[in-house]
Amino acid sequence: MKRIFVTGGAGFIGSNFIHYCLNKNNIVMNYDLLTYAGNLNNLNNMINKENYHFVNGDICNKDLLNSSIENFCPDFIINFAAESHVDLSIENPDSFINTNIMGTYNLLLSSLGYYKSLDTKDKKTFKLLHVSTDEVYGSTENGCFNENSSYNPSSPYSASKAASDHLVNAWIKTYGLPAIITNCSNNYGPYQFPEKLIPHMIQRCLQEKSLPVYGDGKNVRDWIYVQDNCKIQYKLLFSNCEESKYNIGASEEKNNLEVVELICEILDELQPSKKLKTYRELIKFVEDRPGHDFRYAIDHSRVSNEFKWSPEVSFKEGLRNTIKWYLDNQEWINSIIDGQYSVQIAGLE
């Protein structure tokens, strides 16, 4: 049993990670500001557990962050706290610069101070894991990005995440902070906020509204089921890692139109429309967004070879599981759309 300090634990990947950690009988502190995409309902069934604790905090609040880490005395810190929607970063980059860059900087200061306070034994096992994205590498038409690929971010979001990665790397090299950076491909699964492609399209289908697809729909992403990602992130925390940077992917490349069409196909089977022959009739191509990267592709051989790891869930299986979860949890998503969720999503009417 370890004590794990999780920033951004009320978000999509963070809440799935906390579920995984608590089911492994660890003690978890969830430190989250609860911005629009943070939802404590993601952890309703964990609230009364003795090994789960919550602090409503901002990683930009140095004093609260310091005291929370010091009082909790974690064995590990994992950073999921981030502003993560590309469209919103184009409209309002300020919050992305603040949270993703300055917030990471504050977390590095707090983590280093805490690390220096540990005794020799605990220093040997302490680790900070910084969760980042494959978008820092930019776009490619051929091949895959590996850990040595140059950074070439296109959006304010990916640029802010690239900056945060560079800060973590600097703290590793300059100050000797034991930290790891993971750059992961697109996650999907339960508890994902409805601004993202897959849950957005599921809800639009169920509402029988148009399904807006950017450009010609040929932009390609590698997709990984969130539980597969949580398992390898967890393994990295608990392992003696040979490297300080790992790419995480599933080799499940799909273009956006393929993803939307597959969502329609599965919903046609699981919950067919009473009005439409197929949900595909709702697909509508819209103007492409600025700086839209064509293709992301991750070479995850380093983490796969070192830890004998491979994703367990195929995209089609994971997407079916995800759609079933949303169908079974309409109350969860309706509470967001009707209440908390007030941010305009690109493509909504």
Please explain how this structure is put together.
The relative contact order is 0.14. Helix 1 crosses helix 8, helix 2 packs parallel to helix 4 (94-117) and helix 7 (197-206) crosses helix 9 (256-270). This protein has a domain at 3-193 and 224-252 and 293-314: NAD(P)-binding Rossmann-like Domain (Rossmann fold, 3-Layer(aba) Sandwich). With 349 residues, it is an alpha/beta fold. Strand 1, helix 1 (12-23) and strand 2 form a beta-alpha-beta unit. The strands form three sheets. The protein has a seven-stranded parallel beta sheet, with helices on both faces. Strands 7-9-11 form a three-stranded mixed beta sheet. It has a two-stranded parallel ribbon with strand order 8-12. The protein is globular and about 65 Å long. 43% of the residues lie in helices and 16% in strands. The chain has helices at residues 12-23, 62-72, 86-91, 94-117, 120-125, 156-175, 197-206, 226-238, 256-270, 301-307, 315-328, 330-340, and strands at residues 3-7, 27-32, 52-56, 76-79, 127-133, 179-184, 186-188, 211-214, 220-225, 245-248, 253-255, 283-286. The chain has twelve helices and twelve strands.
Describe this structure in a few short sentences.
By secondary structure, the protein is an alpha/beta fold. The protein is 43% helix and 16% strand. It has helices spanning 12-23, 62-72, 86-91, 94-117, 120-125, 156-175, 197-206, 226-238, 256-270, 301-307, 315-328, 330-340, and strands spanning 3-7, 27-32, 52-56, 76-79, 127-133, 179-184, 186-188, 211-214, 220-225, 245-248, 253-255, 283-286.
